[in-house]
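Render this sequence as a predicted structure.
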Amino acid sequence: MTTSFQWRLVAIAVGSLFLATCISHAQSSGNATSVNGTILDPSGAVIPAANVEIHNPVSGFDRSVTTDASGQFNFPNVPFNPYHLTVTAPGFSSYSQDVEPRSSVPVSLKITLQVASADTVVNVNEEAGNLIENDPTFHTDVDKNLFDKVPLESQSSSLSSLVTLTTPGVVADSNGLFHGLGDHADNSFSYDGQPITDQQSKVFSNQIPPESIQSMEVISGAVPAEFGDKTSVIVKVTTRSGQGFTSPHGSVKSSYGSFGTSTAGFDLAYGGPKWGNFIAASGLNSGRFLDPPELHALHDKGNEENLFDRVDFQLTSSDSIHVNLGYSRSWFQTPNSYDNLNTGILDPITGGPVGLTDQRSQINTYNIAPVWTHLFNSTTLFTLGAFVRHDDYNYYPSANVFADGTGLIPGGSSATVNQNRTLANAGLRSDISYVKGIHNLKAGVTFEHTFLRENFNFGITDPALVPSSADANGNPCFVAGVALAAPCTLLLPIDLTRGGNLFAFHGRTDIKQIALYVQDAITKGAWAFNIGVRGDLYRGIVRDSQLEPRLGVAYNIKKTSSVIRIDYSRIQATPYNENLILSSVGSQNPTINAVFNGANSQAFAPIRPGFRNQFNAGLQQAIGRFLVIDVDLFWKYTHNGYDFSIFGSTPITFPIAWHNSKLNGVSARINMPEHHGLSAFIVLGHTNARYFPPQIGGLGATIQTGQPFRIDHDQKFQQTTHLQYQPKKTLPWVAMNWRYDSGLVASNTNLDNFADALGFLDADQQTAVGLFCVDSSGTKHTASLNNPLTSTTCNVLANGLPTGSATRITFPKLGTFDVDHNPTRIAPRHLFDAAIGDDNLFHSDHYQWSLRFTVVNLTNKAALYNFLSTFSGTHFVTPRTYTAELGFHF
């Protein structure tokens, strides 16, 4: 990109923001709009007390109002989607039409009802073609009415669980992490239009509470021009609003379940036609807060508190204010494994026992996001928004640093580490939307300023790491008690067993980003086009820029109720911000590199933005009146393919970059809208995730050269089937999930076969994977903590290799292991969740009691998310858990 183009982008951004600040009023906008109108009789007189309903049978959105004395109705906070609108009034025929808001510009209708003698009922939704969307972008729509009854796998990361269970192509990982279409957490969230592209796993940040969400649109296909940075999965969240609630509405809920898990919370919506306030607060306390490295949770307590408040105010007929406020705090222990219980380990200084490993974390997050929109006329809407989001992450070591586990740095040696890291993201966004005729035009600019502060300390707690005789290369470390050779001279000052001090790393940097975009959604007959272009300027530790065209085409074959589509997206991918300074600048530090690689340490360059070419093609097909199938093929080539690595086995994780990645696969969703109380959906995905060495950026913790390899985001197949049944709204309901995962790649290449596992894994690790073998007499032996398997326990084949396998990982057939085409994987798993509830126990009209009982992992399947992952280690899925919830609604 030329320098002149860069300066033009900057000039346009500054000019747009200056124009915004010069306008005197303010308003709110995001991922929703309003649908309003007037109901008239044939003479033109208004009809009060008419009932107006809008409904989307696929997402589950359903809302109804009555017209006021002037015959007017208003639906605020309506997510962008197609809806079926129905009007009924005594003495008049019913009226129906389809409404499809795709912009923040309000939809205004004038509807004339016919008298009853001329009654003509139009029921558009009885046609299969009205269940499909003529949209070039593959996406999933889920409303609160649907996901309220979905049993979630994790209460401490409910939003991640909801996305994983309802979105095709999303692979589940531990601790609220999910991989979208082969990428590591390359996901972004749009909260009422506020962009959030930072990590949302519960070990990185606190998530928005699910009780604040009205609906979600999850884009996992082609990328519209208004989105950038992290684009594999884009979660557009519309939050709940109190506008339109002329009397207080809300609920108070509390639950208790397995592992001593308890929750309590309330939400309240109150307002009027011109204003509204929605507030939600909740708390969680659990004895299994994170997914532990053992089947049984050890040292795994945690709690979380959330507060969310949304304020809406209509200043004039053209101007409104919308403000989101949020605060979350979480505190949790780092789960222990049996290996780091430290039984018998002595303090090298005092000679006494070191005690149990007791590492903990605390995360504080706050968010402030005011928005104003100004409606110039019925076709044009202007938006100006600001936002500040701040994460403060603290990791605390054990009180006795020598208790901090084993294997924290390569070679199995121990270290202690602590960290304080802050990530603050502040910015302005502005856009203008224009809807008229066949055009739905949107142009905007976003400026973001990210403030990164990273402080961490580490020290060696294993006296054997700096040997008294020689280093790993045979060089003498000490002569007459003096350290002579690298890396000994680098490590000795931080060897706490020899009187050293903690190594301190302090990093500060700012990242500035400007994005400008223009896009137009054009609908002409059976054709739909998404045409756009985006320009990104990235100014951080490195500098880069990119011009990114986006193009999508869809065609509606009405005769067969089909939509075919094809898309192209050019994307600038930006590095992960979490510990980016450590990864980019710390890679040049000789002490840090010595910890990882000794004399073979390698200093990589800082991580640069990458670029991606993405192609999508899909088909949406309605079958009958109650079934929609949507399939999307994707292919993504990325230069600078990002991943995360880990500082030894500590919670200090950081981004790295590989030369390139090639990701391809297929995603599909099958929807059955509600029919006689039964509704269902199935989401499916298949992903090939191939990464190509060499490593070209970040800290030199993972050095791999040679052939391409399957990264641990690669999974051959996963699916979720959700069924929901409620015969009548006054009766109880039941819901069930069936989740199947064929298994992620087990990233540790020392596990080529059973013999490797037998020699490489200790007793705890053998037990975790369910290692077993048969001896010469035919007796089966299974590894346990007290009785690990050895080569003498198991029968030996003629080739000298022992026989055996594992229940929780899958080895390739002997001699067929290949890091690209046939790696070791986590074993396939089937998980079943179920819930039953009654939303109105005593059949009251105004004050209602609800009761819900949920079982997660109904069959108590013992399974792994991952094993010895270079990013996150080993984690088990949630065992069978029970939860009972009681609620009061008003």
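Summary. Confidence is low (pLDDT under 50) at residues 1-28, 118-126. Residues 52 and 65 are 5 Å apart (CA to CA).
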